[in-house]
Amino acid sequence: TSGKDAIYETGVDNIGTVSAAMMTFLALRALKSVDLVLNAGTCGGFKRKGAAIGDVFVTSSVANHDRRIAIPGFTEFGVGKLEAVATPNLLKAFTHFKGGICTTSNSLDHTKECDELMLANDASVKDMEAASIAWACKLYSPNTPYLGIKVVTDIVDGDQPTHEEFMKNLGTAAQSLQTALPQVLGHVCGREISDL
């Protein structure tokens, strides 16, 4: 985790791209050798992509939807699309979960411009960390294996206010993640769930 906020003295969880990228990069430097960076957490899902509350998604790639830089070359940098750096066998092992692209921003809500970029990114889910964690992995070493496991708390293209739906469904999403994560770790570690 990224700890609690001491900078602004709020005491809330450090969320968003800055703390996620920094925490990931510092952890990679401290550990030196890493088999897999696993980003497990919550996300908003798109009903147009078949997402429902509590669904587990394995991210095939990541992109940003709030870095709008309309200058040649910088547009691509802003979107920052990266493929998941994990073995094909690892991705195939989780076919019982849904899959797709996770798009990232620093806001829980979204604007019209965000909606357009999320559609252009072909996003299945959206969060506030995945693209920055993948970027930090790539910055550390181009071959650092990264995989996202995301659980849906809210429906982005639904009709409920995001913050209300998120809070209402956080417990359901947490239970889905608590069920899915041991399966993922068991596969990665080559052990049965009961051995973990």
Main attributes of the structure:
196 residues; five-stranded mixed beta barrel; 38% helix; 6 strands; alpha/beta; Rossmann fold
How many discrete domains? 1
Q: What general outline do the C-alpha atoms trace?
A: globular
Mean pLDDT across the residues is 92
Question: Could you state the CATH homologous superfamily?
Answer: Nucleoside phosphorylase domain
Largest sheet: 5 strands, mixed, barrel
Which structural class matches the secondary elements?
alpha/beta
Strand runs, count: 6
Number of helical regions:
6
- The CATH topology is Rossmann fold
Strand content: 15-25%
Stretches where pLDDT is under 50 for at least 5 consecutive residues are none
Annotated CATH architecture = 3-Layer(aba) Sandwich
Terminal CA distance? 20 Å
> What is the gyration radius calculated from CA atoms?
16 Å
Pfam families: PNP_UDP_1
InterPro entries: MTAN (IPR044580), Nucleoside_phosphorylase_d (IPR000845), Nucleoside_phosphorylase_sf (IPR035994)
Organism: Thalassionema nitzschioides
GO molecular function: methylthioadenosine nucleosidase activity
Please characterize this protein's 3D structure.
It holds the Pfam family PNP_UDP_1. GO terms for molecular function: methylthioadenosine nucleosidase activity. InterPro entries: MTAN, Nucleoside_phosphorylase_d, Nucleoside_phosphorylase_sf. By secondary structure, the protein is of the alpha/beta class. The chain has one domain: Nucleoside phosphorylase domain (Rossmann fold, 3-Layer(aba) Sandwich). Helix content is 38%, strand content 21%. The protein contains six helices and six strands; from the N terminus they run αββαβαβαβαβα. It has a five-stranded mixed barrel. The mean pLDDT is 92.
